Amino acid sequence: MGSWGTLGPAVLSLAGVALGAIGSFFGQHLVLRASARQLEVEQSAAHRAELKDVILKFLGVASRVQKAALARSGGDGGQDGDGGQDGRLDELVEELWLAQAEIDLAARTESLRGATYRYAFRLAEAARGDDADAATLRGVQAEFMDAAYDDLWPGRQRVTASGDLGRSA
What we know:
Layout lengths: L1 H72 L10 H23 L3 H19 L5 H19 L17
Helix pairs in contact: 1-2, 1-3, 1-4, 2-3, 3-4
C-alpha cells in the first residue's frame, strides 16, 4: 500500500496530462472544422456574388439584343440603307457571346451553362432574323432564369409573390 501513496499522485498527474492533451486535440479539431466551414461559406458567398454579376451582365446584353432583334423583325430596324442598325446588332450579338462565355466560366452547373448557351443561340438567331418570336424567346429566357436560380441557390425552391412554388417541375 505504501507504493500507491508514492505512485498514486504520479499516475493521477499523468492521467490528467493525458486527459488535457485529448481535450486540447478535440478542441483544436472543433476549431479547425468550424474554420473550414466558415471558409467554405465565405467562398460560396464570393462565388455567388461573382456569378450574380455575370448573370446580370448577360441579362442586360440579352435584353438589348432582344429589343433590337424584335424591332428589326417589326420592320423598323436595319432597313435604313446604311447598315448602321445591322452593325450595331452584330456588335450586341458579339457582346452577348462574350457574356455567355463569362457565365460558362463562372457557372457551377452544366444546366446553367446549357441554358445560357440555348438562350444566347436563340437571341443570335433572332438577331439574324431567323426566329424573332417573342414567345420562343420568353421560353428559353425562363429556362435560363430557372437554371441561374438553381446555380445561385442550390437546393432552394423558388417561391412566387403569391407563395406558390415558382416551377411545376
